[in-house]
Amino acid sequence: MIIKNLTRKSGSGQLFRYIFRYVLKEEKTTVKDRVEEEKQRYEAAGFSLSYNDVQHLLNERSDYLLWKDFKEKFPEGNYQGYIQNYLMDKNYQVPGWSTKNEKEIKPFLIKHNVKANDINGFIKEFEENQAGRIHKRADQVALHHTILSWSGLDRKHVTDDMLTAVAGEYIKLRGENNKYVVNKHIDKEHIHLHIIMSGTQLNGLASRVSKQEFQQIKVQLQDYQRLHYQNLTNSLPEHGKAERQRQRGEYEKLKRDERRSILNSLLSCIEVIEPKSSEHLFGELEAKGFSTYTRSGVVTGFECDGYKFRFSRLPIDLEKLKALDAKNARIENDLSELQAIRGTSDRVQALDRLECIETSQSENEADFDREIADDEPSRTGPEDEDDKSNNESTEENDDTDNNNENDEP
Fold it and tell me: Which of 75, 149, 199, 261 has the highest count of CB atoms within 10 angstroms of its CB?
């Protein structure tokens, strides 16, 4: 159920007459009244219809409801049975039809600590109770006006007994030391209760409660309804939602302030950095706590403490960064080619030098061999000549011996 509380500092008589306005009225709902009421509804929706047009629409609606009721009760099409069993019954009413006569409104009244039985008596009794207030102020509250309402989808489950029980539970939670008058309104699609409570307790003290205390009363009353009237499934609003929204608003404000602070720090860092390339910019900012994040494999922005900042919302010239990256790429390419050329030249020079060394070594070896060969004759000394002469002597002696042998007989 929805619980709404209002306060009044004056005008108690006007409020009492408002909540009992259906009891005071003794008008009858005629066809003309129905047509005028329906016409106002169409005008509120933006349609300007004449009296006859609205009356025709009402008749068409009545015919449709009659046909629908007939088909539900006699699908085989037995008109005679429908007329005899239903339409001839004076107490039967087609579902959805409004009676031409006055709708009977059963009196519904709940009193607590109140002796009077009419409106004027209620007004007088509440004013006398207010006069006995101990601590008086110029802006003191005279009456508390509380409204308990239920969804129109649960209208068939909202009974007088249920309303009486819920109203009694509210009085118990709000404080039984006050005066209460409760009445029911059925003028709208949803049934609702109007509760008038005295602004002063019977002991002369104010009947005020804090917002937190009244919020607790709403939650407890909702729990009571959920426990005892489980069929009211469409009348369970989320009490405390406003407080949670307020807390969430404060939390979101803190997060916004924190994000703004981090953004200002990021902007300050970007302002003092003169990027030589995107890698240089990203590295400088990462050293200050701002790392890059990607989306679909593409670097999209910076991230810090869970907050993300896109490049498109930062004073970063992406085209300039791309141009710097392209320029650096060309320089790197040129350096690589130059190093490749330099490396080839060095290898050729090394090979040439190695070849020269090998050639020089070969020439040195040849010179050494020639020097050895040239040194062979000069190295023949007197000892060699003695050996030669001895050899020659030996040969001569050998020849002499041979001749002597030949001369012997």
Answer: 199
